[in-house]
Each structure stands twice: as C-alpha cells, then as structure tokens.
Write a structure and sequence with these properties.
Among the domains are: 1-128, HU Protein, Chain A (Irregular), CATH 4.10.520; 240-318, 2-Layer Sandwich (Alpha-Beta Plaits). Helices cover 27% and strands 23% of the residues. The chain has 6 helices and 12 strands. The chain is rod-shaped and about 150 Å long. The two termini are 37 Å apart. The relative contact order is 0.10.
Length: 318
Amino acid sequence: MYRRVAIPEGYGDPARRGRFEGSYKAAVVDAVQGAVHAPSKKLRFNPHLRLNDGALADLISKNFQWPLAKAQSELDAYCSRLRQALEKREIVEIAGVGRLYIDLEGEYKFLPGQQNFYTPSFGLPEVKFNPVKRQAVQAPVVETTPALPKRPPRRLNINYRSPVFWVLALAVAILAISLFFLLRNLNAPVTGSIVEAPNSSTTQTQVDPEDEDPQQDEDNNFVTGALGEIVDTEGATRGPGVREAVVIIGSFQDEANAELQIQTIFTDGYEAYSDKKDGATRVGIRLGVESDSDMREQLRAIQARYNKKAWVFYPDEK
C-alpha cells in the first residue's frame, strides 16, 4: 500500500524520519552484464525533510476511499512499526521500493530496489546484447634498408711548415723533371737505317661470355601475429539459454559490513546476492551468462574491481 501511494508521486514520510525524492535517471549501458537499461526514476531518502504536511494521508484517503482520520491512523501505525524496527538497527524492507537502515554512524541509508517508477518507460524491458569482437588486421611488415647517413666533406689540412710537406714536394719536383727529360729523348729523331718489320696480322679470337640466367632467390616471408596470441576459430559453446551465476565477493561476520558491501554493489549497477553460510553472510553479484567465455570475462572484471579471490557458483546446479 505504501509503495503504491507514495512512490509514484515522488514523496513519502517513513517513520517521520524523512522523505523519498525521485529524480530522472538516464538509460544505462552495462557492458559487463551485456544489457541496456531503460530510463528510470532514481530514488533517494532525504532525512532532512521531516515536515508532515498531511499530503500523504490525504492521498491515501483518496486512493482507498477512506476517511481522513482512518488514513492518518493507518499511516501513523505503519510509521510506528518502521520507527521501532529502525531503532533496533534492523533493515526495513519496503516491498518493491527498497531497503532502509541506520548505519554504524547513525546515518540513514537507503538501498533502492529494481522497480522502475518512471512512467514513460513503463513496459520497456532490458535489452540484452553481445558486442561483436573483431580482430585487428595487421599489415605486412616490409623490411627496408636504411639509407647511409651523408658524411660532411672532409677538409684537407696542409701544414706548410711541416718538414714532411717539403720532402714530398721535392720528390714530386724531381719526378716531374725526370719525366720531362725522358719524354724529350723519346721524341728525338732516330738516325741510321730503319728496318721495317713485316706487318703480321694476328687474329684475336674474342670469346663472348655465356649469358647467365639470373636466378632470383625465393624469399619466404611469413607474417606472424603477436607471440603467444591464440586465435580461436571456433565459436564459443553456448547453452540453450541464459544460465544464472553468482560471483561471491566476500564473507562477513558483521551484518552491517555485509549491508555496506551490498549497497556498494547496488550503487555500481549490479544485482546483489547474499546468503548465510557457516554463521557468516556471503555477499556477491548475481549474473546472467550465456557461455563460459562470457562468465570468465565478467569474473575477471569483478575480480579486478572488488576482490581478486572472487569465485563463481551456479545456484541451479547445486
């Protein structure tokens, strides 16, 4: 009754301790669970708004055709029960709305449920999707020979004061003078009889080298991927439907710590799970998976975010 009357209008007065407030929440794409959530109304509990304006009792009277006095008395009785439970440090659950409790610091904490109170989104289901995984195509590696760096021209440094320079210069001068006189004597006219030798023609046999067929070596270039990378060519084995799995994050002896962990899971957009095991409260995340590869991928994401020792079990296969 309380959820039906108070929450769609966006106000309430649980235990005279505050008021519910609703605000628009945009659509959310959950890549971990593979779902798109429709727009909804985000609920929060404001403990500072404690003024009783009588609007809730009037709304109850109109919806159920009760006298105003009866509506007020029913509301007071309901608030009294909530107040007593909260003072005992119990978690008060409002069906279809969420859970309200007082933490160790005396602050009111509200864990909203999964109910969507945004009227324009009524009837819109969650959309399940599986992103298409594609492997990047690697371009073949072409080996090229790097160009040799250009060296700056070297300057010839001549030390004219060095004895070695003058020795070399003197040797060159002597060689030049010797060649001059030698060529001069060769060009001088020859006196005396000249015997002409008969011209003998010699036939030179020119042997053409055989044309060699160039042989081009085969270059076997293999394009390989990254070391250790294994590409699975077969599709992932999928069951006939979606399997329900639970990832246990931790086990708590203190109920308050367990509830804080549950609140964190709800805030992060997951569906929380809890049960009792050996006197402790196990807290985890309830998931819907379609394949083992999907489960492993989600488990890695949860371990990286919450606890690297998180583990999985399937409630339907106990």
